[in-house]
Write a structure and sequence with these properties.
Elements lengths: L2 H17 L8 E3 L8 E4 L4 H4 L3 H12 L5 E7 L2 E6 L1 H11 L15 E5 L11 H19 L3 E8 L4 H13 L5 H4 L3 H25 L4 H7 L1 H14 L3 H25 L5 E4 H4 L4 H10 L3 E2 L5 E4 L7 E5 L7 H15 L3 E9 L3 H13 L8 E6 L2 E2 L15 H19 L7 H21 L7 E2 L2 H4 L7 H16 L16 H11 L1 H11 L3 H20 L8 H23 L10
Length: 590
Amino acid sequence: MYIQKFIRENIKIALNEIFQFETNNIELQQTKKEFEGDITLVVFPFVKELKMNPKEIAEKIGDYLVEINSIVSYNVVLGFLNLSISDNHYLDFFNSVKDNSEYGFSDTISDEAVMVEYSSPNTNKPLHLGHIRNNLLGYSMSEIYKASGKKVYRTQIINDRGIHICKSMIGWLDYGNGETPASTNLKGDKFVGDYYIKFDQVYKKEVEALIKNGSSKEDAKQNAPILLRAKDMLIKWESGDKEVVELWKKMNGWVYEGFEETYKNLGVDFDSCYYESDTYLLGKEFISSGLKSGVFYKKDDGSVWCDLTEDGLDEKIVLRADGTTVYMTQDIGTAVQRVKDCPDINSMVYTVGNEQDYHFKVLFLILKKLGFIWSENLFHLSYGMVDLPSGKMKSREGTVVDADDLMKEMTSTAKEISKSLGKLDGISEDEKKNVYKTVGLGALKYYILKVDPKKRILFDPKESVDFQGNTASFIQYSYARIQSILSGINFELSRDKYDRKLEVKEKELIKQIDLFPSVIDGAASSHNPALVANYVYDLVKSFNSFYQSLPILKSAFEDKKTFRVELSKLVGITIKNALSLLGIGVVNRM
């Protein structure tokens, strides 16, 4: 049993035995360096229930726990109980996990599943830097939920209909001259995105011309000839016009091929895809049932609304007067459809930028009012914008930071820095390319995921590929150092069990390793991969302190040498597993 879990279970027993008090609210921390101890119990949460002062509660629990062989002593500082754990218990833990390549990951999978939605792009442009943060968050949280024991479905909903794709289609019809991604050697999403930009350029010129001829700015914007054609095309698409639908399928097909290439390079994938062209009519049936139950009401013009003012929100339209749906209607229907498609889903996570915070508050509340039990377990993984030092991204003007270009730049930056350090001399070109890509993409992913999702990020490509500080490169380099140690051994690691007095740095490192499963659980419950990112950085700092303080292969004592090599190996396993939760790879040399 992992040390923190062991302590937690015994504290539960102590509370029950001493005070006849049961709780799952047991807060453990690593003991601060200025105090004696290994693990600290925060006693304050028990004070109100037990009606005793925190010092007295802590002492009673401490007296009970020292009867357990694993806890050798305790001290109390205000409302904090500092526990000192025996070396034998740390060694028992180490011996139990040292050969487990899946260390940290739950070995049981829940019968209930979580569906994670991420990416969800439009088909009128390639993926950009904002999509990268979205994909990395969604994919990472999927891996973290899975590691915590949940069954996971990954999905995306593709915005493949509406005026935006019609704009790209008009742009291609007018200016494409029959070109294709193959004939121009362009990725399909980039190819189609260029015609979206072309449409906008022509549209702006037409608006300017109309204003010069006496139109108001608003009239000019609404009546530019090229926009009127796009609106007409949308009407034809919705009515099933064969020619328009065929062009729509062809251009979207180009885009999907481009998306797949980007996803593959980024290292993310999906179990299923939903398309707005299939889902935009979903949800209407629930409007009818909601009207009957009083969840919705109809206005005089025939439009249908949900009054959420008593819940501190606004009134929300769910069906237009002409009977057409809005995004809220679609999202209600899509959520229900997903549960029909995967009946074991009991929760859903939507990875969407923070500009949609209000939308998801409304969606979740309406689903709850409609009586769907699973609506209690919906979560909006909201995140802030990503900026580059050059400024905010804009897609219509064509100044968007393209995801493919950024990934290439990161690989190139990693190559440049690795060459300057001269650490890859003597390995093949293919191996070097793998290192450049792994380090470059790792730098990008870690730089984004180490930040709390809610915070805005200023992403600096060169700063992210730094072999010092809180970066993936620093962590990957430490992993490579461990592999170098393991490749340098000329003796058998044959001990089934180690039994010796631990050095301070050895114990600190084992304590840090022990935290990994609880960090995974914490990241899953708080929907925050930054906890894993910053944990693995702390682990690497602890390993480097151990590495610099104690001889490993050069130790004169055989038991110390083999133990420290085994400990280094377990650190390597933990680093690799933690980085895998962030979608980051490792290399044996860099």
